[in-house]
Amino acid sequence: MREDLMIALSADHPLAKSSSISARELRNEAFIVPQFSESEGLGEILANLGRRGGFDAEPRYRVADFITALCMTTAGYGVVLVPHSMKSLAPADVAFRAIGDYRDEIELALAYRTREVAPCVKKFVDATIARYPRQSSSRRR
């Protein structure tokens, strides 16, 4: 599954007033970066964003996941590049904006037990596969 990336920032951040943000406008921001392992994370994507904006984008904070990054965003620690689907999981005081002159995607994965019996998990898996039908690998149930 692939999703477009957007920038998440505190709802009271000055850039949240715009419907779209340019890469250059992110020049002086502190970036919060989910780092899932030593070899995985958004480092290269962040570097590409910085090149587009004419600056060296360096992570100020590395965190374990998107939810932690969004919580830090609400507390004013910085901004974070997130997949579009994070909008549905974020606290109310997070604003999401497109980066008008930069577009990139992130690969998302869904792992689940093929013999899962919990109805809510089955519904979630079904909804996710329905949302990304062409991108989902063959389903084994």
Automatic annotation (TrEMBL):
SUPFAM superfamilies noted in UniProt: Periplasmic binding protein-like II
Keywords: DNA-binding, Transcription, Transcription regulation
Highest taxon of source: Bacteria
CC annotations in GO: protein-DNA complex
Entries under Pfam families matching the protein: LysR_substrate (PF03466)
GO molecular function, one term: DNA-binding transcription factor activity
Alphabetized InterPro entries for the sequence: LysR_subst-bd
LysR substrate-binding domain sequence ranges: 2-128
PANTHER family registered for this protein in UniProt: LYSR FAMILY TRANSCRIPTIONAL REGULATOR (PTHR30346:SF17), TRANSCRIPTIONAL DUAL REGULATOR HCAR-RELATED (PTHR30346)
Recorded family membership: Belongs to the LysR transcriptional regulatory family.
The name this protein goes by in its record: LysR family transcriptional regulator
Organism: Caballeronia arvi
